[in-house]
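User: Could you check the structure of this?
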Amino acid sequence: MTVQTLPVFDASSEFYQNIGLLKVAEMAMRKHGDAVVIRASDVRDMVLLTSTEAVRYWKSHQGHFLTEMGEIASNAAITQIILGDALEQPENAALWDSTRKALGVVNRNWEKWSERSLVTATNKLLADIASAGPSVDLRGLCSIWSVRALVPTLFGESLPDVEMREGLMQIEQFYYAMSTQDADETKVPSDMPEFTAARDFLDRATGLAMDNIKPGDETVIALALAALPEDTPRNMKIDCLRPTLGRWLLEKLNIDGLALLWALTHIAQDETLGDDMRAELQDTDPFVTHDLDTPLSFSVVQECLRMYPELPFIYRITSQPVELFGHQIPERTTVVFAPWLVQRDPRYWDKPNSFDGKRFLTPNEDKSAYLPFGIGPRVRTRTSFLQHQLSVAVRAVMQNFNVQLAADAKRGNIRPILRSTLAPRGEVSVSFTEHSETDVPQKMTSTV
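Assistant: Sure, the predicted structure tokens are below.
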């Protein structure tokens, strides 16, 4: 096969910078096909790969695509920077060993602890909806739900929900800055104001959680702190706890509740879908029903993640030359896999730009066309965890309420914009109504 030179899509002008990567990637693929160099600036090139063939190659040759720093930082590399590596230092081997043993206990209890937080958060969500008035912005409701569904399992109740949400947004801003600024601007991440804000938040949250631990607390920080010698200096305790807590936080968090927001936004625009979901949920307990026993609700969750993947673009660095589509991709090249494009590609999906809540009642034949969180064993665990969280929340809301877009809702706001995640462009106003005058939100009927 003759090796061809990769085509180049020059997106370095102010025009392309303003329209954003979502549109730039779409335009580059339409013009040049499934492998194209996007020239983002004079010093930044990245190879965009946009087909299931590329995804299958990635799955089969994961060692060819590293997550280390390149011209653009991968999510894994950014996570490593923000959390630090105190436990990985040779002099802290004993601290790491004791922490690892504590995390073994966490793993054995994780399902019970996290389910308890999820049930509590979802009941609070139902109460917030019931008291919301004629209309409410989904952004606030969903982001607070996502905090409540996870953070108490990690940190306990040390920070108010709103303050925790604001801190998590500071972490998101650091991810966004690292993945969009040029290499010279991110050369020393610790000098960036976004790093300082994010790190300060994590250290403050960790310190407050340490100070508020009570005997018998069933939280990750309680177990992890107990594994450290009592005479360990406070700053070292924080350095050791930060990566432990931070990895759980960033791997398990439903970022800003956006997946729930997009699911409810689309249900609000499809009255028939809402009616069908309520029929499915009749006489079920949303908190204990297995996700696959409510297939329509589960399909809605999967369809939401198809249209709005948590990772629209996934950055990797080639560890050796790679040949795809007759093109040679050199070693040390920044490569971008594109769930945003693959999951909206008409080659793999019928009417891909339309939300079809029943789409996943029939599984898609090409498994490589669906990768909302990426690929790999840890990704499968995260996918299962977040799909379950979303299923519980969606079932509980739909069993208790009708949801519609508010009369004053601006349709332009519900078009996604890419920052570090796919977020709405503005307020998403919806109206919730209970099914009858006498109905009250269903509370937990099970003991977790």
